[in-house]
Amino acid sequence: MSARLSAAPPPSVRVRAPGKVNLALRVGPVGPDGYHPLATIFQAVSLFEEVTATQVAPGSGISLTVSGPQAEAVPTDETNLAWRAAALLAERTGLAADVALHLTKGVPVAGGMAGGSADAAAALVACDTLWEAGVPRPELVEMAAELGADVPFSLLGHTAVGTGRGDLLTPAMTRGEFHWCFGTQRTGLSTPSVFRRFDELAGSRASTVDPADDAELMHALRAGDPVALGTALHNDLEPAALDLRPELAEVLEVATEAGALGVVVSGSGPTVAALARSRQHALALGAAWTAADVVDSIWCASGPAPGTQVVTSVAR
Ligand code: C5P
């Protein structure tokens, strides 16, 4: 009997959180806190990070392992956002920070699709569930915002308007499913350096941001009209990303020539998002990129996708 009990798997929780694309990203002049005011429309897409939190012996501390594409590019120490999420939750709840985290990467690394933010959102929910902390949702969202501007959106998912640093969210109404193909580069771009280049290029000319500027885009979402959405895609960080990575211009061009409904750099890049008419068309756009040899990998997905959710939970 005792032998059977000791062979039982330790309690663990598996949680999945989506990556995102910014359908619109408007950036204002940098503030005294070093952050830029944003007016953005996020859409979660069906590329998911998975975080498994497993119980360990008391006093073991936090440990972290990573698998999946580009896993070798991900830090496995306390600088990892998932690690920081577990540590923050423990600190705020007074619980012991003892957990083994495993990340399965499904979102391009350092690609402007918030893969690291998804890890943080998933780790918060996984540890909250494993430790039976029962942190009320608003507090979880506050911790998410402390960890990074994109983390609250990964908790929420679907489509939402983001203001402030991008962390103040209002869900947006959409109809139907949108099909995407994402073209990624082996070497990522650092978000702070893209914002810095934005400052150098736009400087004090950066205008104040207003979500009302995206009225047409919001209408396209409500109507489920991918053609209108394609025309309305917009990213103020695109010139900065192109300046740092001039070869991205060709990625945009190839997708446009292949009939994409719209093409835009995703967030701070270097991932390029191409909107397609259908799942099949998304695959064709990816094939055009591969044939032109302008991206290192292609990832087809659809949006909107749900926010962070528990997939499985093995109880005590
Ligand atoms: O919040 P997060 O850590 O994801 O942001 C990474 C960096 O991106 C920040 O340190 C800042 O340099 C830049 N950023 C910004 N304005 C925002 C969001 C991020 O300047 N609204």
Word description of this protein:
Residues 80-157 form the GHMP kinase N-terminal domain. ATP binds at residues 108-118. Its EC number is 2.7.1.148. Keywords: ATP-binding, Isoprene biosynthesis, Kinase, Nucleotide-binding, Transferase. By secondary structure, this protein is of the alpha+beta class. The protein has a single domain (11-316), classed as Ribosomal Protein S5, domain 2. Helices cover 35% and strands 27% of the residues. It contains eleven helices and twelve strands. The protein has helices spanning 2-7, 81-93, 115-130, 137-147, 151-156, 191-202, 215-223, 226-232, 238-244, 248-257, 279-292, and strands at 12-27, 38-54, 62-67, 99-104, 159-163, 168-171, 178-184, 234-235, 262-265, 272-276, 297-303, 309-314. Strands 1, 2, 3, 4, 5, 6, 8 and 12 form an eight-stranded mixed β-sheet that branches. Strands 9-10-7-11 form a four-stranded antiparallel β-sheet, with helices on both faces. The protein is globular and about 60 Å long. Bound molecules: cytidine-5'-monophosphate. Cytidine-5'-monophosphate binds next to helix 6.
